[in-house]
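Quick one:
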Amino acid sequence: MGRPRKSPEARRLEGNPGKRPIPETSIVAGGSVVAPDHLSDDAKACIEIIKRSLPPKTYAACDAFLLAAYASAWAEHKRCVEEVNKPEFKHVEAGSQGQPVLNPWLKHMNEQARLLLSIGARLFLDPVARAALKLADEKPASKFDGLIGQSSSSDLSRH
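Output:
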């Protein structure tokens, strides 16, 4: 699948050593993410944690649907884990003809985990994607920072 593409703003900030053309962004999403009412309390809490954990303006209103899908998968995964952790839980059950069958809760838990991985990468929720995430508001530090101004005057007074 590969890493998600960097935004044109991030590419401009990092420089363009390959001199490849950087496309202009014609559509800029706006608005803020609001958790849909139909989500469980666990899923709504998941969305709130994600919104607070990443820099402002990372998500727009149109991302609410993908965040809702991620949060729903997380809430369902949590429910499966709670079920599996019960003392009476059996990992292997008897099937309809007496054969050993893996408990369906385990299969469902693993499906939700795979869903979390695939959606999470698109939402910058894994370390690799977050490392590539740089916002246009952030300006790279200049090598001349601190030479003029308050910090430089305190440095000069020491000499």
